[in-house]
Amino acid sequence: MASKQILVVPGDGIGQEVTAVGKKVLDKIAGKFGHTFTYDEALVGHAAIEATGNPLPDETLAKMKNSDAVLFGAVGHPKYDNDPSAKVRPEQGLLKMRKELGLYANLRPIKLFDELLGASSIKEDILRGADILFFRELTGDIYFGEKGRKNNGDTAYDLAEYSRFEVERIARKAFDSARTRRKKLCSVDKANVLETSRLWREVVQKIAPEYPDVEVEYQFVDATAMLLIKDPKRFDVVVTANLFGDILTDEASQIAGSMGMLASASIGDGTGVYEPIHGSAHDITGKGIANPLASVLSAALLLDISFGMKEESELVISAVDKLLKAGFRSSDIADAGTPAEKILGTEAMGEQVL
Ligand code: NAI
Ligand code: MG
């Protein structure tokens, strides 16, 4: 029996709706296993800008640092998406959080529940058995380099930078993880064109001999984008840079059926942060139809990785599996054959998990 402090940071849009479900699931687990979980909440993103003018208030950051884990929602608001001139933006809160907490490794498991084989637009025989774990580097690359304008604003630039140290620490996490799985690692870069990618490949090649039991493959990112859809089963652990990982994992969400199914864990030197890979989804905000399973599965990752509660984590995943087996679907994972009474909203899906 353990005592843990969890910070819930729902953020914006459907982040509010799905995180409420993730939290209920954590609470249920605590009750079932006799753990004591205490919760606090904090602001981030648009909600934080409205309240304080800052997308990541110091108070939020301090609470994150003092918690055992963070259950995070999403940030974003339509008012910024079409206003490139906005200087203060919700995503700055996200990037600052990752940097300040040193969350350099973003784990994104792409696991297809068998019951959802029909929900994907990819053919069933290509999908069946696909199980990929992405390691996306999260605190470097073009997202954090110098950016700006020159030539009176007519030229814009974003600088991509990686250090040997940054590549090595994420690569080691991926190698270690590959050892516990099918012992296959695919390192994705664009080493034919980019200098940061050449360093990336050099570093991975240099440490690979320390993991003789892991088979390493090197791919260019454009080829990976194609192969993910053509033959997802060829991948086991994939390690890649921040920008490539961002794009490839949205693509890979179609292997799992929907963005609403994909959870992530961001880990580093301090508190771990657990969140769906999707954003605040303005198009469905307030409709009560967002799929909460990405948040529920993020809670499962939190239990496993930050708290070492394997059994508790597996119970959450099996609850998701059970409700899918029973035929329940949120609208994003329903297909033509799903009867109307089995299509549930966010809260009702949460009730089924509980
Ligand atoms: P999005 O991930 O919010 O939505 C993409 C599409 O997937 C939408 O059609 C949405 O309805 C659907 N979708 C996403 N999650 C779903 C769920 N749980 N259940 C059912 N359908 C779901 O990405 P989009 O639309 O490009 O961006 C919306 C806002 O989110 C923007 O302001 C963007 O900056 C922000 N964003 C934030 C992220 C974060 O906080 N980590 C990540 C990506 C985008
Ligand atoms: Mg993304």
From TrEMBL:
Function as written in the Swiss-Prot or TrEMBL entry: Catalyzes the oxidation of 3-carboxy-2-hydroxy-4-methylpentanoate (3-isopropylmalate) to 3-carboxy-4-methyl-2-oxopentanoate. The product decarboxylates to 4-methyl-2 oxopentanoate.
Pathway involvement of the protein, from the record: Amino-acid biosynthesis; L-leucine biosynthesis; L-leucine from 3-methyl-2-oxobutanoate: step 3/4
Name listed for the protein in its UniProt record: 3-isopropylmalate dehydrogenase
Keyword Isomerase included in the entry's annotation: no
Source superkingdom: Bacteria
GO molecular function: 3-isopropylmalate dehydrogenase activity; magnesium ion binding; NAD binding
Reaction(s) the record says it catalyses: (2R,3S)-3-isopropylmalate + NAD(+) = 4-methyl-2-oxopentanoate + CO2 + NADH
Listed InterPro entries: IsoCit/isopropylmalate_DH_CS (IPR019818), IsoPropMal-DH-like_dom (IPR024084), Isopropylmalate_DH (IPR004429)
Protein location: Cytoplasm
Sites marked Important for catalysis: 143, 190
Gene Ontology CC annotations of this record: cytosol
A GO biological process held by the record: L-leucine biosynthetic process
Keywords: Amino-acid biosynthesis, Branched-chain amino acid biosynthesis, Cytoplasm, Leucine biosynthesis, Magnesium, Manganese, Metal-binding, NAD, Oxidoreductase
Record: residues binding substrate: 98, 108, 136, 222
Gene that produces this protein: leuB
Entry's family note: Belongs to the isocitrate and isopropylmalate dehydrogenases family. LeuB type 1 subfamily.
